[in-house]
Amino acid sequence: MKKSFYDIFKQLNDTPRPSHHEERVADFLCDFAKEQGLRYRRDAQNCVVIEKDATPGHENAEPVVILNHMDMVCVAKDGYLRDGHRFDPLKDEIRAYTETVKNSDGTETRWMKAEGTSLGADNGMGLSMALAILADDSIVHGPLEVLTTTNEEDGMSGAEALSTDFIKGRKVINLDSEAYDEITVGAAGAYLQVAHFKADWASVPEKYIFYRIVIDGGLGGHSGVDINKGRCHANQIICRFIQNFGFDKLMVCAINGGTANASISSVAEVVVAVQPENEKVLKDAVGEYNDKLKQQFATTDAGINMRCEEVNPCGQYLRNASDMVSAINELPIGMIAMREDMPGTVMTSNNAGRICTTADEVTVSCHSRSFSNETMRELGQRITSIFKKHGAYDVELLMDTPAWVERQDSPLLALTCKTFEDVLGFEPKKVAMHFVLEAAYYVQKYPGVEIASIGPLIIEPHSTSERVNLDTADNIWKVTVELLKRLA
Description:
The chain is of the alpha+beta class and 488 residues long. It has helices spanning 5-13, 23-36, 121-134, 157-161, 234-245, 279-296, 321-330, 373-389, 411-424, 439-445, 470-487; strands spanning 39-42, 48-52, 64-69, 81-82, 85-86, 96-102, 108-114, 144-149, 171-174, 182-187, 189-198, 201-203, 209-216, 251-257, 268-274, 305-310, 316-318, 334-338, 346-351, 355-357, 361-370, 394-401, 404-405, 429-433, 450-453, 458-459, 467-469.
């Protein structure tokens, strides 16, 4: 039954799908295959491949794989309520809406956004297109495999665990790019690790006053795409403030920040205990620091704000908080080096995406990226050493994904460029991007594989400002349909 990819995107966004929680969206994909009368397979990681036979007369064409991932980075605005309750990414749907913007030249552009949360256009828009192709028998194609992986955004464990016989095709159209006029021909590698510090609790003496210090209002954003834009890393800033204020004047009772490992932290908070004589000193220091932040990030994070408010007593503080804060302050955070051969492209970076305090421990995540596998691993080891020097009892490696560069003589790449020219009237730029794609795993697992990565224009992925340009989505649909026909 034919469905538009916009209809399918709405269905997809009705199904919560944050990384590590893809069971329900995998069920959705399997049910979709059943409804269409198509074969499908699902592995232990919940990755799903749906197969569709070739259009009659094209059975001898090479099989083509359309690749996407089913998870999304699901973040919500600080304090955002959904129908009276705090938004829950494991239970609540994404509510998308369309907005038409008038351009200075008199034209109009249609954008899709989400109410209070990230949109999930990364990679839900591409996945919806792939499913719409499966549901449309008027589209000409050879043997087709729609492969959808899990946990792409936070470890790529789905792609890493794929069996070497999970797909037959060696020509892969990846619909997970975010710049409409470009074909991604390379992607940085990624090294994701989480440091674990034991929570060493002690009782707060009597007469102490408790305050919650919050930094919010930053843009956040994708820790690859936006890492060189000079934005506020709230986790880093709040740790600098604590250390500068001095552990002789406060006790840290909890520290939390960020919502996803692959996002620049836009929100961070710390609960502290101070003696009455330091109460005004703290308030004044927060006010002065807030003024400095507003000046420092005036052009990148216009809504940045730091404040403190008195809260109920916590009873306990972290005796080893200075170790964790010192470790975070010693980390290299942000853009570290640029590529000399590609002006404007980041070579190496690191992001401290999440800090989380529980009853037992404090964890800190670091998501490092580089086009040099050697540099990336050296950086990862350096970060591990910093954490261990400051008392981390374990530094857990969650992802070590190599960088990927596509062959420049790839016939698939040439055909994709030609299709863009013929359908849209322009030749797309070939670029290597400072975000991580699963392509490196496919090159390793499936000898001879060729990959062309395309997609609509998506702005501010992994943030509550995420939006997709629907005019470009319509055009990517046209290119994909025509490319399948030519490949058949």
